[in-house]
């Protein structure tokens, strides 16, 4: 059985092999498709690999230390999650008009620059968006192919079907969550302050919590042949931890150091994200304070002074402290759910460590 570090190495090897096979197909189409290939390779060599780690830990939790004939399948499933995540990030950056990702130009900005430097006809930004949408779509299809390859290594057709259903459910939920996210950016003013917080929590649950933690854990456990009670315990751990994970992201989106996060400081504010953090801030502010923050949020021209002003309003409201407390509470809920669960003891310890890693981070 691979340990977590070796698992990530195996995942990278699987990704490299898969991309080599698929990019050779692109090369036979046209030399110009090399930009798709090179970006995919670069992008899939970065990131924290949290989803792959949770997928592996879900599998480990139900298989224990015994030899398993599903090792090939879990490596492939974890790799499929990484490709799906890459596709989601590319599309997310287009929706949010983000200039950077992981300290480098986002996909649509990279294609935009290619157009500008080549002095091609038409609008560079339009070309960049169109090319990035297609790259994201291509990676979505590739994630399905890689998952199918992984599940074909299983000897149990019923387990393979259940794993496929989990992946499909995750894909549907995260897409719906993304839609709700952009909806809230436009419709927030039609809801009460309390309703805004509730709706922001729904977005956090389906856009991130289930997709980032619960679904990868469950997918791994299913591939490992986990029982219903084991899956229930992992879901009870995964959902609150996923919420804590997203709440940390919300704080980093406002207060994070751009040199560490790889994205400009205050990007979430320029995008007008109506997060739980913003909802709690508005509930605590005076009417004048709410008007001020509403007038600033969503303005792509926000300068450093504007970002600092919003940060000050959030701190004065106490919302950042509330979110920190909520993170601690959700992690405690997650930890309690697995401490005495019918899972491998070593895996439980590793899941407890992983809970701290994903919630006490600066990027």
From TrEMBL:
Cofactor: Mg(2+)
PROSITE patterns: POLYPRENYL_SYNTHASE_1, POLYPRENYL_SYNTHASE_2
Record-linked InterPro entries: Isoprenoid_synthase_dom_sf (IPR008949), Polyprenyl_synt (IPR000092), Polyprenyl_synt_CS (IPR033749)
Stored CDD domains: Trans_IPPS_HT
Keywords, sorted A to Z: Isoprene biosynthesis, Magnesium, Metal-binding, Transferase
Family in the record: Belongs to the FPP/GGPP synthase family.
Classification via PANTHER family: FARNESYL DIPHOSPHATE SYNTHASE (PTHR43281)
Descriptive protein name: Polyprenyl synthetase family protein
């Amino acid at each position: 059985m691979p340990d977590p570090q070796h698992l990530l190495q195996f995942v990278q090897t699987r990704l490299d092999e898969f991309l080599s096979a698929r990019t050779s197909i692109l090369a036979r189409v046209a030399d110009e498709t090399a930009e798709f290939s090179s970006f995919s390779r670069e992008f899939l060599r970065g990131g924290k690999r949290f989803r792959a780690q949770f997928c592996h830990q879900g599998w480990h939790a139900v298989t224990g230390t015994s030899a398993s004939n599903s090792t090939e399948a879990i490596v492939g499933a974890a790799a499929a999650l990484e490709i799906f995540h890459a596709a989601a990030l590319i599309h997310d950056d287009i929706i949010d008009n983000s200039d950077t990702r992981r300290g480098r130009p986002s996909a649509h900005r990279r294609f935009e620059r290619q157009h500008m430097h080549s002095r091609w006809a038409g609008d560079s930004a339009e070309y960049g968006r169109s090319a990035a949408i297609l790259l994201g779509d291509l990676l979505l299809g590739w994630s399905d192919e890689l998952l199918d390859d992984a599940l074909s290594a299983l000897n149990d057709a019923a387990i393979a079907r259940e794993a496929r259903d989990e992946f499909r459910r995750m894909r549907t939920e995260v897409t719906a969550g993304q839609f709700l996210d952009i909806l809230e950016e436009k419709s927030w003013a039609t809801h009460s302050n309390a309703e805004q917080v509730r709706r922001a929590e729904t977005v956090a649950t389906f856009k991130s919590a289930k997709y980032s933690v619960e679904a990868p854990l469950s997918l791994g456990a299913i591939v490992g042949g986990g029982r219903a009670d084991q899956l229930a315990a992992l879901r009870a751990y995964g959902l609150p931890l996923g919420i804590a994970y997203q709440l940390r992201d919300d704080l980093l989106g406002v207060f994070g150091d751009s040199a560490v996060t790889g994205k400009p400081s205050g990007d979430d504010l320029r995008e007008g994200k109506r997060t739980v953090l913003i909802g709690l801030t508005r509930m605590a502010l005076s009417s004048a304070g709410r008007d001020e923050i509403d007038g600033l949020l969503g303005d792509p021209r926000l300068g450093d002074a504007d970002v600092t002003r919003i940060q000050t309003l959030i701190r004065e409201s106490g919302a950042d402290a509330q979110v920190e407390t909520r993170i601690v509470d959700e992690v405690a809920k997650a930890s309690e759910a697995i401490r005495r669960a019918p899972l491998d003891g070593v895996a439980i310890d590793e899941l407890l460590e992983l809970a701290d890693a994903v919630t006490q981070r600066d990027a």
